[in-house]
Amino acid sequence: MKQWIRKSSFVALSATLVFILVAAACGGSASDSNTLDIERPAPPAEYAGKTSPLVDAGAAVGAGKQLYTANCVSCHGEQAMGDGPASNSLNPKPKPLAFEMKSLKDDYLFWRISEGGAFSPFASAMPAWKGILSQDEIWQVIAFLRTLDK
Ligand code: HEC
Known about the structure:
The chain is mainly alpha-helical. Helix content is 44%, strand content 0%.
């Protein structure tokens, strides 16, 4: 009997270990979401501390929405929940940004939208928009994103 207990707890322990290893191999999480599991880095010096220069952010929301719909919805989804039609083929996938707008500062957003994610630690498909969108347009998109805050 004693031996049986030892054997079964060994089996349970092995099963647990295998589960942990498989979960780790799948990106540190046993869930199906393959979003980036890193702490967001601070923006580099050239972006740090930047705030929106828009005098009237409210007035920029309409233009920001159009830009977002044309350029961002495919990956980020209409409500910025990370569920655009192209999102399933992405690894990492976008996070549900709408839930995090409160904690994301202007300088971080402006940096990430300008420079994209083709570098460490992101290594993502997030395109760099500087040179495609003007700085004003990027701030307009940010003004719109702020309205999606949940
Ligand atoms: C081809 C797909 C794709 C498109 C198009 C795209 N993004 Fe992204 N974006 C991503 C992915 C994937 C991530 C998550 C990985 C990362 O942080 O680099 C991301 C990350 C971000 C982040 C950082 C979010 C965070 O959680 O820290 C912001 C902000 C962002 N995108 C805004 C935009 C805006 C605004 C547009 C349109 C102008 C846009 N993205 C277009 C794929 C895309």
